[in-house]
Specification:
By secondary structure, the protein is α+β, with helices and mostly antiparallel strands. It has one domain. It has one helix at residues 57-68; strands at residues 2-4, 17-18, 30-34, 40-44, 52-55. A hairpin with a 5-residue loop joins strand 3 (30-34) and strand 4 (40-44). The longest helix has 12 residues, at 57-68. It is globular and about 35 Å long.
Length: 76
């Protein structure tokens, strides 16, 4: 996983999907985009230029499984 504000990737044409829990009033603001190389980009939609986290499909699967099984509940 990498986090960088400017990874040299052009994300202007990425098809961002916003979480249904995100709001336009400053609430939780998570967006994801599947990139051409199958990397998944994750960013804060309120601050899209602040940085992007890039996950492989394997990393994203592990994170989703951890959420589903409650392994990350103590973080909320």
């Amino acid at each position: 996983m990498t986090h960088t504000p400017n990874p040299g990737r052009d994300l202007t044409h990425a098809a961002w999907r916003k979480s249904s829990f995100s709001t336009d009033q400053g609430g939780e603001c998570v967006e994801l985009a599947l990139l051409d190389d199958t990397t998944i980009a994750v960013r804060n939609s309120n601050h899209p230029t602040a940085g992007t986290i890039y996950l492989t499909r394997t990393e994203m699967n592990a994170w989703i499984q951890g959420v589903k099984t409650g392994e990350l509940d103590d973080l909320t």
